[in-house]
Write a structure and sequence with these properties.
The chain is mainly alpha-helical and about 130 residues long. Helix content is about 75%, strand content about 0%. It has a single domain, classed as Four Helix Bundle (Hemerythrin (Met), subunit A) (Up-down Bundle), CATH 1.20.120. It contains four helices and no strands.
Length: about 130
């Protein structure tokens, strides 16, 4: 099991690097868009459709940045758990998370049973 966790640690470290790079790119694009908008009168164009497109793009960028930041936090948490020796344990029931699940999603916090139950509850609450 220790060898498999080493592989997962390498995978998590690579994911962290990728997410940090993606976040940096996203921030650079946001800065570019903000600087481009400053060239227009008060940050607004003369056409309402342009304003709507710009607003949509900013909202999309914010959502993407939040998603990337959340994934980065999950990856960093998984790496911390590896260092602490608590990696691979379900946060809900404490049982081991299956290796196949960890290989597919190394930052998984819940075993498949607890995750299924969580999703079922979410669906019931949405109904």
């Amino acid at each position: 099991m220790l060898g498999e966790y080493e592989e997962l640690k390498k995978k998590l470290e690579q994911q962290r690097e990728d997410l940090l790079r993606d976040l940096k790119q996203e921030e650079s694009m946001e800065i570019g868009l903000a600087q481009g908008a400053e060239g227009e009168a008060g940050g607004y164009s003369s056409h309402i459709a342009d304003d709507a497109s710009n607003t949509f793009e900013r909202e999309k960028d914010i959502t993407l940045e939040r998603t990337l930041s959340g994934l980065l936090a999950d990856v960093e948490d998984a790496l911390a758990k590896l260092d602490e020796g608590t990696f691979g344990k379900c946060e809900e029931c404490g049982r081991p998370i299956g290796l196949a699940r960890l290989q597919a999603l190394p930052y998984a916090r819940l075993c498949i049973s607890c995750k299924s139950l969580q999703e079922k509850r979410s669906r019931e609450m949405a109904s």
